[in-house]
Design a protein that fits this description.
alpha/beta, Rossmann fold, 7-stranded mixed beta sheet, homodimer, 3 domains
């Protein structure tokens, strides 16, 4: 579509604005159908974003998008319409706000709950610089379960500044929103916000205002004008009720399934296996319980929730709380499974250390979307988990070679004596289970060569198999090991092998991962001088959006380079 | 003191209970004056804990102490009176709840805000097992700023279980409590809790009850009885107003200074230097702002807060929010300094990654209490930071050799172009500044030897100097390097040195720290076969309480072993 200028938007009649909304909506649907991305969340805020651009002056005024998965209309209205078709492709527009992409994107987000804190920081800096502009945080109701929001609200009076918080209330996080806060918000948007609820927000120093049909510009525009006026003298909470997926019937009916649209699914999903195995385990063992932070479907837990509703807990976008809850359930003999994306687990780091591992409790982390994930970019790559989990005492880290082995790990986990983290990518192949034993590597190819590859996880093992085949074609032998435990690594196997050249492959940054662990074993055994270890993994950089395979290659897991290195080892002998 | 049996406590008259409280208070004061520990927080809850033991049946009933720094009376009343004099000493009682120490300690804590989540998990497991006991979370008002509490409150209805939350309100966290939540609580304990505030808690599914003189057993006992009764049919919030430091005049007057009593202070404090340098920087540069999460005094920031109240922000126990706030301040050109203890920074891990480093913002983390800290034990050792920070792209990690160098790093930080973490222990020596340059190691002793020691931070450099001296006495030369940047390490210096034997020393666990970083440089340069690297740091274990020096030695930084290794290298040649 063509760019719509700020001037045009500010002068357009109401019918023309409605036309613009329809054009934007079509553009979003068309682009997402080609590029994938967040659909329902973006469709819900088309009118709200148009109204914001009409009433406020961006980029002088600043807006922080909580999570950031609802910024497409903002991108389309800020000079990026022509580029919008490149959405989520390598080198194209990001699906999230990016400072480097436009001066209209003042703060980068990706995980829930940061927008109010960020808006407060921007507003405080404004005050300190004696500047004059408006600062807005646009926050979905799902984020109102996240603790960070309350930490920020508590700061409003301390910081003594002015922000406009727009609570975009669609009654969903990714799963339908749950819990006490949700009930509070529901009552408010029934149109008769009880005085004590308004008082809750006012206690924090916020003036409460509400729009209960937030997809109607006729209601929205005057409400935003009033909020802007009120913002001159203090902070405002504007509660806007919107419909997720608005204007696109399929999304309106299926807001959870259409929250994110992904393309190019090429294999089976680990999440399906998780749901099947956990449900089967739960049938046999009454101690098995499942916990998720607002991601039931994406993690494959729906069958478990259906069959064992009393033993399945979706606590909302509360990664830390979910972690402590698992620890406590385990102190009383339960076997909790905490399913979560790799990148979101970063939120619970302190609790993994102290609550789970400090108490050596048998909680199993099912860490989905590990490794490079692709089109969501920097904030969604799962490339740090091996590094941040490896230093934690008592924790075992498992990385299955395929879905069959993932199932075996899950079955073994239920009687495992301490904390266990199983990390896996979204997609893979069912494959075959080899010789599985906890804490042991698996030797896949062994021959009288001087080269051995230790690979962790399905992506790397596939790469290892391709390398093995390509090297064989060139007359070079190498051994291949399924390095399925990264902490502890299988010291016995590493020390028992006599190959001179060791290669490690991991779908993780290099610092603190598999390569470093193998190197430590060699050093401690005094073998580092006889053996030559080379680690392949991702270099020290944030990995942007693009296709996962392509990114993996460009950031360090490059088949050609590794093959060249193998040939070089062979030549050196 | 002698153990007081549960039977005795349950049958004692009110005057006798008051006597018991005085005995307990004396025992706490006497022990803390010898062993150090948390004084004011423990004195505040003597009556409350006695009343809890009178009304409830521990260990059948379960109590979770939030933070855990108020559990001394509980320890004294649960069979640990005779051992109490060993508090906080190696092998003696911990200053925090420990499951291994007593069946009365059902859940381990150390950091704020976990107790409600933990109580919910324990209660839910009880329900699933069809067991019958009461579950209590004792939470200070300071933790009511922490986001985790709201995440847990939001879960009350989801989990559909029953817990008693006791809000121990003394108007303090470590610093006096701040912000909107504090005002809410203050109003409530004035004796006329506004209906909308009670409604706030009731919205989450809690029955609200209050005792406004929580150091008076005559009020406390019936209130706890009522709460216990109400707990049979649903969750209860009992708001108890106590006086921190109660019964000990000095503590009552100086609750912040007497929150924790430490003994054996032996050197200057890095925190004093932080306060001096940041204040000086702020005088010259209007962009400098300071942020803390409820630790103003302990981190040395009081002078800054006094001189620049408008540029200093104590946001309460909200480590994540503080981190995002810093990021946002930096996007608008400020130079934020986030001062925090190493162990508490774990709470903000996701925000360090995405908000600060993902956006490459010039925020400086001043990480105090790094390395083994001693008597507070597992939850307070700062031995993971080098490992969890090293994998993060864009971050520079600095480790000063003494306070003079710490000052130089702070002065350099104000114009540094990206995120910087400076980690340092509590105490050290002012020392002298050598040749300081950002991102460069410093060669302290150089000679024609085959051995070179790379040491990060003051503890390790002192150890290196002792090793250097002891080896010299034995006729063995070695070179010594101040490895003051752990990320990135000074590759140029490492590769330019010709010593065969490299030794790294770090006050951190071995996985993912300095040793691994140096090893990676050697591997990448193809030098790993010619050089012999041995890393000394802490082994893969949680380090319990004890004296810091003693723990450092026992967990891996053992002078004798390292010296023996140096002599062995020399002999091997």
């Amino acid at each position: 579509m063509k760019n719509i200028s700020s001037g045009e938007l500010k002068e357009a009649s109401l019918p023309r604005l409605r036309e613009i909304c329809e054009t934007l909506r079509e553009e979003i649907v068309d682009t997402v159908s080609v590029r994938g991305g967040h659909l329902a969340s973006n469709l819900g805020v088309v009118e709200l974003t148009v109204a914001l651009h009409r009433v406020f002056d961006f980029p002088t005024d600043k807006i922080v998008f909580d999570v950031g998965h609802q910024c497409y209309t903002h991108k389309l209205l800020s000079g990026r319409a022509a580029a919008f078709s490149t959405l989520r492709s390598r080198g194209g527009l990001s699906g999230f706000p990016k400072r480097g992409e436009s001066e209209y994107d003042c703060y980068e987000t990706g995980h829930a709950g940061t927008a109010v804190s960020a808006a407060l920081g921007i507003a405080k800096a404004r005050d300190l610089k004696n500047a004059a502009f408006n600062v807005i945080a646009l926050v979905g109701d799902g984020s109102f379960h996240n603790g960070l929001i309350y930490e920020a609200l508590n700061s409003l009076k301390i910081l003594n500044t002015r922000v406009l918080i727009i609570l975009n209330d669609n009654g969903m996080s990714i799963s339908p929103t749950v819990g006490g806060t949700h009930e509070l918000l529901s009552e408010m948007k029934e149109g008769d916000a009880p005085i004590e609820d308004v008082a809750l927000f006012e206690r924090y120093g916020l003036t409460y205002m509400g729009v209960y049909n937030g997809n109607d510009l006729e209601e929205l525009l005057p409400a935003l004008q009033s909020a802007k006026k009120a913002l001159a003298s203090g902070s405002v909470l504007l509660h806007v009720s919107t419909r997720k997926g608005q204007g696109f019937a399929f999304c309106e009916r299926e807001p959870e399934r259409t929250h994110g649209i992904s393309l190019g699914k090429s294999g089976a999903e680990y999440s399906t296996a998780l749901g099947e195995e956990l449900t089967a385990l739960a049938r046999r063992d009454g101690r098995v319980v499942a916990v998720t932070a607002a991601m039931t479907d994406a993690l494959g837990l729906r069958p478990f929730f259906r069959e064992f509703p009393g033993r399945a807990f979706d606590v909302g976008i509360c990664e830390e709380h979910a972690c402590v809850l698992c620890a406590a359930l385990a102190t009383e003999g339960m076997r909790p499974y905490y399913a979560i994306y790799s990148t979101f687990l970063q939120r619970a780091y302190d609790e993994i250390i102290h609550d789970i591992c400090g108490q050596k409790l048998p909680v199993t982390f099912c860490i989905d979307r590990a490794g490079v994930t692709g089109a969501d970019g920097e904030t969604h790559q799962g490339v740090f988990d091996l590094s941040y989990l490896s230093p934690i005492p008592n924790l075992v880290i498992a990385v299955p070679k395929n879905i069959a082995e993932f199932r075996a790990m899950l079955r073994a986990s239920v009687n495992f004596s301490g904390p266990l983290a199983i990390r896996y990518p979204r997609e893979g192949e069912e494959g075959e289970l080899g010789d599985f034993e906890m804490l042991k590597f698996e030797l896949l190819h062994s021959n009288m060569s001087e080269i051995i590859i230790y690979a962790a996880g399905e992506r790397c093992l596939r790469l290892a198999e391709r390398l093995y085949a390509a090297a064989s074609e060139r007359g070079v032998c190498c051994s291949v090991v399924n390095a399925r435990f990264v902490k502890p690594v299988d010291r016995e196997m590493i020390l028992s092998r006599n190959e001179k050249y060791l290669i490690t492959l991991e779908d993780n940054v290099l610092a603190g991962g598999l390569g470093d662990a193998v190197a430590r074993v060699l050093r401690e055994a005094g073998l580092a001088q006889e053996r030559v270890l080379r680690s392949f993994g991702y270099r020290d950089a944030f990995i942007p959006h693009g296709q996962a395979q392509e990114l993996a290659r460009d950031f360090g897991l490059d088949f050609e380079s590794i093959l060249a290195y193998i040939m070089e080892c062979h030549a050196r002998g």
